[in-house]
Amino acid sequence: MSKILVIDDDGVTRLLLKRNLQMQGYEVTLAKNGAEGLRLAEELHPDLIVCDWMMPLVDGVEVCRRIKAHPILATTFFILLTVRGQVDDRIQGLDSGADEFLSKPIESDELLARVRAGLRLRQLTQQLSQANQQLSALVEVQQQLLSAVDSTPEEANTSYIQLLAPLGQAAQASRAYMSELYQDQAGIEPLVLCEWCGKEPTSNLSQQKCPESEGLIPPNPLPWRWIESFNKGEIVAGKVSDFPAGEREILEQAHLDSLLMLPLTLKDELVGFIGFENCAIADLDSLLPILRAAAAAICLHRDRTAALLALRASEARYRAIIEDQTEFICRFAPDGTVTFVNDAYCRYLTMTREELMEGSLIPFRPHFERDVVNQPVINREECEVLPNGEVRWHHWTERAVFSEDELVEFQAVGRDITERKQAEEETLKALAKEKELNQLKTHFVSMVSHEFRTPLTTILSSADLLEYYQEDFPDSKGDKKLQAIQRIQSVSVTMTQMIDDVLLIGHAESGNLQCNRNPLDLVQFCQQLVEDMQFIDNGLHGIELILSQPSLSACMDEKLLRHILTNLLSNALKYSPAGMAVQLELCDRQNLAIFHVKDRGIGIPPEDLPHLFEPFQRCRNVGTISGTGMGLAIVKKCVEIHGGEISVQSEVSDEKRPGGTTLTVILPRFSLNNLTPNLNDQFSESVEAKLPKKKP
């Protein structure tokens, strides 16, 4: 129930406003002057304030100014009641931070309409603020982890302390901590590696304790129910009052009212967890994906750190072996005959000195063709095949040996550098992966900053029009107000959809997106979908539905299928000229459902086709047509989760001929696990036949 504070020195007006608002189900509190209203606002934290302008001592403008300057109450929607209609008065009210004006005498319908609009706008603002805070926390966590790529375990723990702060703030928690798990005779015991309390991060090395905690959380040993949940990849969360009696007693002793714990797993093995105390359990649905992504990033970083330490240990062992043994040495006469080899050389090749001296098999030879006078000493690296067939890398230092001015022989000193080469290759791969992740983050930040700016500008401009010119619009022009409101609603839906798309991509990348098959009539589904899309399109294009039969049964995930076809049809409509219809064709073949979405739009350049299904990628010929570049990435994920395939054929439009694109989606009508081996083979053959052939 929304809380509304009414501030007015006129008793009749207060009671009238209270009655009208309570009839709509709002919780209403009354204040008879500005001072009392400010006090009640700090106590109650209302969602909306209706305040009279003209009041003794503290007037409405001053009340509004103080409310908007308050760090907690600043987002409260504020409506000023006034009989003053001059432009200067309006400017004064806007400068104080007022969100809306309402003229006396008050019309009940207008009051309720503006209250509803204000509460919707406040809710949207809170959602966007929360989403931005959570995304910022995740970005900060990624930055902290990227900065600690080559850190030692001690340095990594320090980095974990820093990243707990944004996570704890996003969860609105009083305390956050990261623990490792150890097996003991008494059970599985947690060891707190680092913790965050309010503003001051601490670690177990500093011997500092959070003032809110008495050292009971996490319990030692952990309840077995929690361990079982962690092993299943599940969370432990809820209000303390909902926990079992034994657990509730421990949590209440620590003065907690809510708790959230997420498991940390490395290679399917539970190694620890992240805990949040007194957190925003009510916002768990929106908060949990961000926290899971952060936990996954921490696990990946810990795994990478362990692998890096193992690699460093391997390099150290290799270096010790090389330093402790004699390098293999050989000498050759100028004609290439072997004149000397040492024991290390023989051991390395698993050959006797006699076999090597015979010259029947000489794996390594100096570089005879070089100018030995100007280059008497050279270093080179070569990949060689040993007598046992193993491929190894070697570093050789070759020196031409002279007697006075005459070349008498060559000496070569070699060592095995295969492990170093492999480490360099792995490092290059890791750097390429990090570069790819940074590029993805850059694309995401660019998309968010660009795509959010346009709808926010629309919201602000529409709101300004409603505020400045609401009294200048006569009743006959009410449709202009409606258009402004509809623009606000439309771009709000667009921004919500963009956030949903980002979360959907995150679910798919983390493996949390599942295919839940249920019986479905594909013909009825497509007919309803086309009707919905035509309504949204407002008749600008038109959609032609082509069916091979009147009814087609299937067992599919309706939500995933809607994502697939809605995104494909939306793209076809968006990139097609006005008045040009698009086609949706449905047919079946050998227990497969085949969808063709065809348009006569701008087409896809050939150079963009390899990156067509990557997130945040857009074609170079889209011009000013808006978009996030996530639609086809979502389609690709949904198709793959459904066990299907997608292909594309496109021709770019030009002045001489129109272009067009056809996207083909092939999905099994029923789960592949339920098909016979013969049908599985038919599915593979049909998919291969539909996909475009690769050029040799």
From TrEMBL:
Instruction: Look up the EC number in the record and give it.
Output: 2.7.13.3
User: What stretch or stretches form a coiled coil here?
Assistant: 114-141
Give start and end of each PAS domain.
Answer: 314-362
PTM sites of type 4-aspartylphosphate: 52
Q: What broad class of enzyme is this?
A: transferase
Q: Which UniProt keywords apply?
A: Coiled coil, Kinase, Phosphoprotein, Transferase, Two-component regulatory system
Q: What is this protein called?
A: histidine kinase
Species this protein is from: Laspinema palackyanum D2a
